[in-house]
Write a structure and sequence with these properties.
globular; single chain; alpha/beta; 35% helix; 4-stranded antiparallel β-sheet; 8 helices; 218 residues
């Protein structure tokens, strides 16, 4: 059964999408089967993933039709995504109306969807929209763990600590960095002979820099 992690914050621009995608890509790189879910009507996670979602069913489809077979879109061998949709904003309004009549059922729509597929993955990571509302309630109810992003400079440190403990304990060091224009974040997974540099703007574009040193965690 998958570990389900929701990445949340009522504020936009704090790195929710970056964290969701980067963590998912890191786990997939380590051989874990990872499903990303874009629950934001802005669909930034879907766009960042680079997946070909043309003609694919999305989260809104699954929320509105129980009979549709759930077919996540493949990003690479170990990474899949359920795309977002601009229709999610309207879905949130409809769910809010449903909560008035059936609070238990209407807050478990996403949880019920995940029950159908969670045994196929090791991790399910859910990117949430800023603000609050019925979709976010569904995300929180469906999740086992919640990662709340507070600010970019705090976020990248939290991600690095999580990665060091849970994602890549076999690595010698995990180094959070802020660099370049707009303080774009990246994370370095350092092994004995290679630095794996992951850029926040495009985690799937990995730059490997050979080094002749062995780095050790402090």
């Amino acid at each position: 059964m998958a570990i389900k992690i929701a990445v949340t914050n009522h504020k936009g621009g704090v790195g929710k999408t970056m964290t969701t995608f980067n963590l998912g890509a890191a786990l997939a790189e380590l051989g874990e089967k990872v499903l990303l879910i874009d629950s934001d009507g802005q669909c930034n996670l879907t766009m960042q993933s680079g997946a070909n979602v043309e003609g694919a069913s999305n989260l809104s489809t699954y929320l509105n039709d129980d009979d549709v077979e759930i077919k996540p879109v493949s990003i690479n061998e170990n990474l899949w995504i359920i795309p977002g949709s601009t229709a999610l904003d309207e879905d949130a309004h409809n769910i809010e109306l449903s909560i008035e009549d059936d609070i238990n059922g209407a807050t478990h729509y996403l949880a019920d969807i995940l029950k159908k597929i969670e045994n196929s993955y090791n991790y399910i990571l859910i990117d949430s929209a800023p603000g609050s509302g019925a979709i976010l309630v569904n995300v929180i109810v469906a999740a086992d763990k919640i990662q709340s992003c507070t600010a970019a400079y705090i976020l990248i440190g939290q991600f690095a600590q999580f990665a060091a403990r849970h994602v890549c304990p076999s690595m010698d060091s995990v180094v959070p960095l802020l660099f370049g224009q707009h303080n774009r974040a990246c994370v370095c997974f350092v092994s004995a002979h290679t630095i794996h540099l992951y850029r926040a703007t495009a985690f799937h574009r990995k730059t490997q820099i050979p080094v002749g040193l062995t780095y050790r965690a402090a």
